[in-house]
Amino acid sequence: MINHNTVSIDALKKSIDFAFAEVDSLKTDMKVIKTTTEKNEQKLSELELKLNDAERYQRRWNLRLHGIPEEKQVNIKAKVINICCSMVPDAHAKIREDIDIVHRLGRYQENMRRSRTTIIRFTNRFTRDLLWKTTKTCEYLTKNKLRFAEDLTFADKTLRDKLWPIIEAAKKEGEKAHFAGVRVIIDGKEC
């Protein structure tokens, strides 16, 4: 019986040693996987930043226009050109030349409550920036209930939403506060 127990104990010892070896092997594999995962997560976040930067750069050529009433059969590009020319009458020919693509976002639906946003792509950044600066003080836009906006990436919109309370608080204190891209400017200083 002692011999039988000794043989059983030896078999159990071998099984336990094998299990410990397997556990050590799995621990080593897990460390390698953890290191690889951390490196991949870092690379992924770097790629997301680069992708956002590339998308942001591409969108710098665009402006969004909100408030153009929906009409079924309308040449939206001609309508936008007329709006832009009304804003800056001195640059009429330049605006006609520098507006490349104009289109609405989303599909037309007859029972829409709000009009769809219009994207305007410019061939010249100077013209785009001129229109963007003009929107701040343009009475034509106010009268016609139109509003221009920058064409921001999803990441930039999310960041602006997080930073908005800072701007709101500064405005309540009587300071001049606004966004410049995704940066917050208060009284001419970047925060």
Can you walk me through this structure?
- There is one protein chain.
- The protein is an alpha+beta fold and 191 residues long.
- It folds into three domains: 1-58; 60-151, Alpha-Beta Plaits; 152-191, no CATH class.
- The chain has six helices and seven strands, in the order αβααββααβαβββ.
- It has helices at 2-59, 76-87, 92-98, 125-134, 139-143, 154-172, and strands at 62-66, 99-104, 118-122, 147-150, 177-180, 183-186, 189-190.
- The strands form two sheets. The protein has a four-stranded antiparallel β-sheet.
- α2 (76-87) packs antiparallel against α3.
Keywords:
7 strands, elongated, three-stranded antiparallel sheet, 3 domains, 58% helix, Alpha-Beta Plaits, 191 residues
Short overview:
This protein is α+β, with helices and mostly antiparallel strands and 191 residues long.
Radius of gyration: 30 Å
Number of strands: 7
Major sheet attributes: 4 strands, antiparallel
Outline, from the CA principal axes?
elongated
Distance between the termini: 83 Å
The number of helical elements comes to 6
What CATH architecture of the largest domain would you give? Answer: 2-Layer Sandwich
The proportion of residues forming helix, as a percent range, comes to 55-70%
- Topology as H/E string? HEHHEEHHEHEEE
CATH names the topology of the largest domain as: Alpha-Beta Plaits
Q: What is the CATH domain class of the largest domain?
A: Alpha Beta
Average pLDDT rating: 89
